[in-house]
Design a protein that fits this description.
Layout (H helix, E strand, L loop, with lengths): L1 E5 L8 E5 L13 E2 L3 H8 L4 E5 L26 H11 L15 H27 L6 H17 L1 H7 L8 H19 L4 H12 L10 H4 L7 H8 L1 H10 L6 H9 L20 H16 L10 H11 L6 H11 L7 E4 L4 E6 L9 E6 L5 E9 L13 E5 L17
Antiparallel strand pairs: 1-4, 2-3, 2-4, 5-6, 5-9, 6-7, 7-8
Helix pairs in contact: 3-4, 3-5, 3-6, 4-5, 4-6, 4-7, 5-6, 6-7, 6-12, 7-11, 10-11, 11-12, 12-13, 13-14
């Protein structure tokens, strides 16, 4: 028999027979394997939300039983209380960013200011990729202009554009991935105190990091089956193809090209195309690897559901120092927040809301749209409150006690973000 299991609940001795992603995206090979080490669970965390295991004695390898009290895999569970406490202790403080920037407008005002530019950015990157796919040139001037507008928005208030990363369409998957990655990279760059020009160069690189996929046949990009060795080789060529396209385009800074060149390199040397490690990878390359993986985790794919943002951050945390630069990973978690925008949060009072904006000084007290009251009934109209100052009708301050999965409640958190017109 086969049983579906969340990756965070895997134990040593289980036999994995099927993944929710292509085998080629993992270090493992079909038809399956027995989990022997905690590191194998960590590797699965990087790519999969769930797997299928064989139960009983039907596996092709002997079943291995382990004492649950001594089982090291327990320390790799994403929902373990000690992991929650560890992350809270580390990231409740403002963090080590340079604090060069301060919000100069509200999230609502900035959303109204940038909404049109965000739409133009998505249309532009889709058009750019279509033009390159047909053999045309890349319009660097237009790309630099739109990224400069996005960088200005991030400098004024990063939460507005981060809200837009929760919007999903279906007609331009690669373009959307590029734009979301650009926005997330700009937010991290602001958090790190990068100057405007540096932000723009980073944003250009992330916007176009997958431009090489315009040379990959569509049937390979969209295939619903396990890719064979030749298809994997062709897909991996998108890195060198992207570098070629960007290097032949006048006006693209060399640091932007490094993003495309290194976004699949890993801190421990296990990435491609060159197997670079640690300081052999540029700062932009490390940032690109973190954000590319985060966006892929939080975006639903055919046959694979999206990982909630708070769980995706836990996966990155578990993989810091392995696949990802440890310091930059921790700063990205600080940048996104303990309770990322779009998270469904439960209060000690029983009330439930959706995080719509961060509090960069009091990280446990974000702005929240309250949806469920203390009596567990849904409000007719959600109430937007700042947890740093708000008390409910009973005079109680609200304290977040848990982040809930999106399937726990009968509402879509996106419906309560201020980007929804």
């Amino acid at each position: 028999m086969e049983k579906r299991v969340e990756v965070g609940d895997l134990k040593l001795g289980m036999y994995v027979s099927e993944l929710d992603c292509p085998w080629s995206e993992t270090p493992f090979a079909p038809p399956g394997f027995t989990i022997r080490t905690p590191e194998q669970i960590t590797q699965l965390l990087a790519q999969c939300a769930y797997v299928y295991i064989k139960t009983g004695l039907t596996t092709s390898e002997p079943e291995v039983r382990s004492d649950p009290l001594l089982d090291p895999s327990a320390f790799y569970r994403l929902d373990r209380p000690e992991l929650e406490l560890e992350i809270l202790k580390k990231y409740a403080a403002p963090g080590s960013g340079q604090n060069k920037y301060h919000d100069t407008c509200s999230i609502e005002d900035e959303i109204n200011e940038i909404r049109r530019a965000h739409k133009q950015a998505l249309e532009l990157v889709d058009d750019l990729m279509h033009a390159v796919r047909l053999g045309g040139n890349l319009d660097a001037t237009a790309a630099i202009h739109i990224v400069s507008l996005l960088a200005d928005s991030i400098i004024r208030n990063p939460d507005a554009l981060v809200c837009f990363t929760h919007l999903r369409q279906t007609h331009a998957a690669t373009a959307e991935h590029g734009l979301r990655s650009c926005i997330l990279a700009l937010a991290l760059g602001r958090h790190l105190g990068m100057a405007k020009q540096q932000l723009t160069n980073l944003g250009i690189g992330m916007l176009l990091h997958d431009i090489g996929k315009t040379r990959v046949p569509q049937e390979i990009l969209e295939c619903g089956h396990e890719r064979n060795e030749e298809e994997r080789r062709i897909l991996r060529m998108h890195v060198s193809d992207g570098v070629d396209i960007l290097e032949s385009t006048e006006g693209i800074d060399s640091s932007s090209i490094e993003v495309a060149r290194q976004h699949h390199e890993h801190y421990d040397g296990s990435g491609y195309p060159r197997g670079l490690r640690e300081n052999e990878i540029s700062q932009f390359g490390h940032i690109a690897a973190i954000i590319d993986r985060y966006d892929n985790l939080t975006c639903p794919l055919p046959g694979r559901r999206a990982v909630p943002p708070h769980k995706a951050l836990k996966i990155l945390y578990e993989l810091r120092g392995k696949l990802f630069h440890p310091h930059l990973t921790e700063e990205f978690i600080r940048c996104m927040g303990i309770y990322p925008i779009g998270s469904i949060v439960e209060m000690r009072t029983g009330e439930v809301g959706v995080v719509i904006a961060l509090n960069r000084m009091r990280r446990l007290k974000p702005r929240v749209s309250l949806i469920v009251g203390t009596d567990q009934s849904y409000r007719e109209r959600p109430q937007i409150v700042d947890l740093a100052h708000y008390h409910n009708q009973h005079g109680e301050a609200l304290e977040i006690v848990r982040v809930a999965d999106s399937n726990t409640y009968e509402f879509d958190p996106l419906d309560y973000l201020p980007v929804v017109a």
